[in-house]
Amino acid sequence: MNTKVTIAGVEFKNPVMTASGTFGSGMEYGEFVDLNRLGAVVTKGVANVPWPGNPTPRVAEVYGGMLNAIGLQNPGIDVFLKRDIPFLKQYDTKIIVNVCGKTVEDYLEVVEKLSDAPVDMLEINVSCPNVKEGAIAFGQKAECLFDITSQIKKKAKQPVIMKLSPNVTDIAEMARAAEAAGADAVSLINTITGMKIDIHKRAFVLANKTGGMSGPAIKPVAVRMVYQASHAVKIPVIGMGGIASGEDAIEFLLAGASAVAVGAMNFVNPYATEEVVKGIEEYMNRYQIEDIKELIGAVRE
Predict the structure, then answer these.
(1) Full-model pTM
(2) What is the DSSP string of 74-109?
(3) What are phi and psi of 23, to 5 degrees?
(4) Beta bridge partners of 68
């Protein structure tokens, strides 16, 4: 049974990754999950300088998932290079670094500092608020997405994945813009914007008022968008959004994803990623699938 997939020349032992922001750099999960079993660890977003994140409260449970307004709290690229990469290099798994910023220059600074680092791919979080565009996310306008992708591709030494926001009118248009600008792959979906109000306090539950919704409730939206994006572009698509089991992952593969990422479920079940790997293997055995590539995009019309 072959579970290997190749994305932009990088071979993964299986298609299961962690979703950025839900797994740190794996240190917190090391006692629960054998990182050697995962196709890749996708790190929490890294910026050019430390970010304190948003005020608390910044996480809320909702029906079928959670809202978060962490605000991409991170220690900055210098600490990340010294601490996180050496930790991950102990394991036989690919390393994908998620990059965030408030201006194009912020992103480019991180990308350049990673140019000599032993990491396999970069995932660019374009759901960050673009301060020069009046806090509109980089990934919400096709021309803005094209611009940042093309500038990053000029500087990046590693293959570039653009992580697309679902908070757009036409996900296919955004995927095409990323591809046209030279992206090596796209990943989707990032969180859907949501809100929760405490009816007893008559106040917002999150200090930020709104937050990103993730978890099983968003899976049908994610599967639909992955299907649309995979039909719109020729570059690989990495699918995520509400994956809780191997069966969920298979659904994304059938929709056209070449790999999948497990996110919110890591908070509910720290063993989730390994269980998804096992679930995919069990499915392949059950249906006598010799090569996982037989499943990718198998539901086409």
Answers:
(1) 0.96
(2) B--HHHHHHHHHHHHTTSSSEEEEEE--SSHHHHHH
(3) -140, 5
(4) 59, 212
Distance CA 255, CA 247 (A): 13
CATH fold of 5-54+69-193+213-294 reads TIM Barrel (3.20.20)
CB 182 within 8 A of CB 145: no
Q: How many CA atoms lie within 13 A of 98 on its CB side?
A: 28
Collapsed DSSP state (helix, strand, coil) of residue 174: helix
Q: How far apart are CA 180 and CA 98, in angstroms?
A: 21
Distance, C-alpha 181 to centroid of its chain? 19
Q: Would you state the pLDDT for residue 127?
A: 83
Check: CB of residue 115 under 8 Å from CB of residue 121.
no
Is residue 118 within 8 A of residue 96, CB to CB? The reply is: no
What are the two backbone dihedrals, phi and then psi, of residue 76, each rounded to the nearest 5 degrees? 95, 160
Residues marked active site are found at 128
Residue length of the chain: 301
Cis ω for the linkage preceding 189 (within 30 of 0):
yes
pLDDT digits (tens, 9 = 90+) for 181-217: 999 999 999 999 999 999 999 999 999 999 999 999 9
CA angle (254 as vertex; 299, 213 as ends), nearest 5: 120
Closest CA to 16 of 196, 265, 301, 299: 265
Token pair recorded at residue 200: 């007893």
Integer Cα distance of 101 and 274 in angstroms: 31
User: Structural domain boundaries of the chain?
Assistant: 5-54+69-193+213-294
CB 266 within 8 A of CB 18: yes
